[in-house]
Design a protein that fits this description.
The chain is α+β, with helices and mostly antiparallel strands. It has two helices and three strands; from the N terminus they run E-H-H-E-E.
Length: about 80
Amino acid sequence: MKTIAISKFKATCLAVLEDVNKTKTSVLVTRFGKSVAQINPPAPLQSEKPFLGRLAGTGRIVGDIVSPLPLEDWGKLG
C-alpha cells in the first residue's frame, strides 16, 4: 500500500484517484505521520444485471394469450 502526505494528496487528488483506479492498489493518506484516510479501488458491481435480461421477471401475463380472440372483440383492438 502506498502512503502519501495529505498536502501532496490535496495538490494531486485527481491523479492519485486515477492511479488507484488504474492499478487497483490502495493509498493511505497521512497527516503528521498518522493515517487520516485510506483510498481503495472501487469494488465490482455485483447487483447490476447485463443489458439483455435486465427486465426479466418484471412482466406479467394477464388472461389467455394462446387462444384466438373472439370475433366480437376484434373491433375493440385499437
